[in-house]
Amino acid sequence: MPKKTWADLSPTQKKLVVVAGVIEAAATTWCVRDLAGRPSSQVRGPKLLWGPALSVQPFGPIAYVLWGRRR
């Protein structure tokens, strides 16, 4: 099966891809800002490792929200 290109996608599929990208960018931005403003005592693990982990999409931001922040 040949790989699909952007031109092969339907208008609905294109909109879904764009919306998913915007949500992913917003979530990552929020996580980076939260990490920067949160004291180290409120973060599980070293803050220096969470920064690069947030670039692993979409797992980094999800992991940070679920496991990286202390309540």
Structure description:
With 71 residues, the protein is mostly helical. It contains three helices and no strands. The protein has helices at 11-37, 47-53, 59-68. The protein is elongated and about 50 Å long. The mean pLDDT is 95.
SSE layout and pairings?
Blueprint: H1 11-37, H2 47-53, H3 59-68
Gist?
The chain is mainly alpha-helical and 71 residues long. Helices cover 62% and strands 0% of the residues.
Query: Care to count the β-strands?
Result: 0
How helix-rich are the residues, as a percent range? 55-70%
What is the subunit organization of this protein?
Answer: single chain
β-sheet strand percentage: under 5%
Order of helices and strands: HHH
Q: Mind telling me the C-alpha Rg?
A: 16 Å
User: Sheet bearing the most strands, described?
Assistant: none
Low-confidence runs:
none
Task: Calculate the mean pLDDT score and round it.
Answer: 95
Instruction: Report the structural category.
Output: mainly alpha
Large-scale geometry: elongated
Membrane topology: Multi-pass membrane protein
Organism: Nocardioides currus
Subcellular location: Cell membrane
Keywords: Cell membrane, Membrane, Transmembrane, Transmembrane helix
Which structural traits does this protein have?
single chain, mainly alpha
